[in-house]
Amino acid sequence: MQTILPLPTQPVKPGTSTGQQFWSSTEKTIDSYSPADGQLIARVHPSTRADYDRVVETAQAAFTEWRQVPAPRRGEIVRQMGEQFRRYKRELGTLVSYEMGKSLQEGLGEVQEIIDICDFAVGQSRQLYGLSMHSERPAHRMLEQWHPLGIVGIISAFNFPVAVWSWNAMIAWVCGNVCVWKPSEKTPLTALACQQIITEVLRNNDVPEGVSCLITGGHTAGEWLAHDPRIALLSATGSTRMGRAVATAVASRLGKSLLELGGNNAIIVTEHADLDLAIPAIVFGAVGTAGQRCTTTRRIIVQDSIYDDVKKRLASAYAQLRIGNPLDESFHVGPLIDTDAVKGYQQAVDAIRQAGGQFVVEPGLLDEPAFASGCYVKPCIAEAENNWPIVQHETFAPILYLLRYTHLDDAIAQQNAVPQGLSSAIFTLNLREAERFLSAVGSDCGIANVNIGTSGAEIGGAFGGEKETGGGRESGSDAWKAYMRRQTNTINYGATMPLAQGITFEL
Ligand code: NAD
């Protein structure tokens, strides 16, 4: 039997998830257009400042109850959410694809990430472990405990419109926090759909109003979260420009932020690489999601002796790429998010030409009737130099830079010589090369792979990057610790009061 996505009927409104909805009809609407066909999908009311304050007050009240719910019980509620996402995987994945423009396979994959993080969070809910330590004082015991923080604000980017929320929210919830989510203004409908999908679970489990909140709007709504001392942790995913503004605002109130910002990811291809592995990994990494992943492969650094071969193979692989409607599974590459992104692509192409770059695969706009949204561009490859300003910059489009090297240490130096530090990879069958790349003198990125590309990640590992990528870690491993506060406890079960460090204090 076909399930029907419980999308709300018009008008769609922000608010808390289990009934109350706060909105103002006087505000200009956020209009969501599909980059696939240029159609207006829906109009969404943005939250006003008054809406925002009521949402945060409701979240604060919810936290006083939610933090007392045992963590495994919170995990059980997240488990039920995972079941809901399994039920609506096809519908939500299709909406992600239609609203954001990524391929249907990738849209479904994004919902699968939600399901996976729900499963992960369920297990995590029974593993919020603290350490115990041996005290230097007799008859004393030391331990640490982890407590919830309060309200976790989540600002998300358009390119992973639902998965990034779930990485944060599912872990934040099992840790005992409540969440206020501000999705990208470019993809508000997918966010509203997620809220609708979990509403039944929240209601069935009598979860207090305000545990899961959604506000809509652009950067102004994000700034409310950044400046608000009631937001205990602000997890922000997006451009480095946004991260700098958020980090500064949160730091000025001595708050906590978790930043997941831009990448400029490279693959080193050595003379010992298996090119049958490397070429598909490079092509998928560079053109998947039309080059709009934070982990998109933007640079490849190829050893001199195989440079021409790699160039030829890539050009022939790109010639086979089919560009078209992301909902049609026969196409490899869909549109960019909007016409502003197309302008960014064109400006980058101009900058490459001005710097003297040669295109191995030519760029271009697609303007036939099938591409009427004006958002479809050709993935391209340019021979470039690593130090050119345009190569140092993350252009969120399918532009791949081809760089060359002679000695591995030079390749690693080029790979590291960008302001960003998210994802990196080496293709080699040589153990020494692989281990050097992973060592302390190797890649400086948060993610370093061997014989797989830069793009995408499994939820089991901690995800994030260094330098201008922001330093945050989300998802697996011990990333949960960012969503809790650590408390060190010392207990004296003896009959004397010895001081630490051998200090005596006689009365
Ligand atoms: P963006 O920075 O334009 O917007 C991201 C979010 O920040 C949106 O919700 C936006 O409304 C909000 N925002 C913008 N300015 C703000 C401000 N001054 N204060 C508070 N909030 C503000 O980014 P985008 O175009 O949506 O996404 C693309 C960028 O996101 C790329 O740079 C990409 O690499 C990055 N990204 C990083 C990761 C990661 O995990 N490292 C994941 C996905 C995307």
UniProtKB/TrEMBL annotation:
Where the record annotates domain Aldehyde dehydrogenase, the positions are 24-488
Matching Pfam families, A to Z?
Answer: Aldedh (PF00171)
Q: Cite the entry's keywords alphabetically.
A: NAD, Oxidoreductase
Q: What is its EC number?
A: 1.2.1.3
Tell me, what is one Gene Ontology molecular-function annotation carried by this entry?
aldehyde dehydrogenase (NAD+) activity
Keyword Ribosomal protein: yes or no? no
Ranges for the region named Disordered are 1-22
What positions constitute the catalytic site? 260
Q: How does it assemble?
A: Homotetramer.
Describe the family membership recorded for this protein in Swiss-Prot or TrEMBL: Belongs to the aldehyde dehydrogenase family.
* UniProt name for this protein: aldehyde dehydrogenase (NAD(+))
Q: Where does this protein come from, organism-wise?
A: Spirosoma oryzae
From which lineage does this chain's organism come? Bacteria, Pseudomonadati, Bacteroidota, Cytophagia, Cytophagales
